[in-house]
Amino acid sequence: MIKAQERPQAAVESQAVDKVRVESKASSLVTDRDLTMVRDRVQELLATPATPDQIAAVNQQLGRFARGMVAVGARCVCGNPLAVVTRPQLEDGTPFPTTCYLTSPEAVKAVSRLEADGIMSDWNTELGSDPDLASAYCRAHELYLAFRSALAQRLSDDESHIVGISAGGMPKRVKCLHALTAQSLVMGPGVNPLGDRVLGLVRPVFDPQVCRCAQPWAEASIQENQQENQ
Ligand SMILES: [Zn+2]
Predict the structure, then answer these.
(1) 32-47 vs 7-26: helix crossing angle, rounded to 10
(2) How far is the CA of 108 from the centre of ligand 1 (A)?
(3) Domain range list for the chain
(4) Is a pLDDT exceeding 60 seen at residue 21?
(5) What is the pLDDT of residue 218?
(6) Residue 10: pLDDT above 70?
(7) Ligand 1 centre and the CA of 114: distance in Å?
(8) Whole-model pTM?
(9) More confidently predicted of 6 and 222
(10) In degrees to the nearest 10, what's the CA dihedral of 82, 88, 90, 94?
(11) Cα of 78 to ligand 1 centre, how many Å?
């Protein structure tokens, strides 16, 4: 809800968003088709905002309150949240650049193991020597920004403090595989080449299509219902 006295500022904010959108559009890496895909995905996510049960499940996964969560961006076949979408500006006004956040404990653990194996160092070297990969990774960065801008616009959030900032080290470095994996889960395959690669590597231990949750969604819901009925 925008109060009348805040309208002039809101107008400035929406101009800032438009500028980012125009920049993304002008890039040779992100096509109009990509932008349509991004906007459709945002619309789809905002059409199904996080339910109280999902928020409770994510709070439990993280061991803390999931601030600014607008929707579950990816779910296990059992229904458990795997990654969430966070608004560009938290309720208290804090700018929040990490729009896609990995929450599944099983996924976090599998990805942490890859990081511990030192794979990021290899991939940083590869980014420096493979122009195709570097370009695809830069496109992932731009799509991340486009996704966040679309969200900001729909939610009337100010993202002027985080313009050009994505996550995980993008566009030039690989610093956090969890962030890249979350983007792949939320935005789908073909968006982030390294996030997709992580999902391929961890598939024996984590796969969105195979429930290996310590506490599958149905089971958790049934337990809650039983407690309520007691
Ligand atoms: Zn599951």
Answers:
(1) 140
(2) 14
(3) 11-211
(4) no
(5) 72
(6) no
(7) 21
(8) 0.84
(9) 222
(10) 130
(11) 4
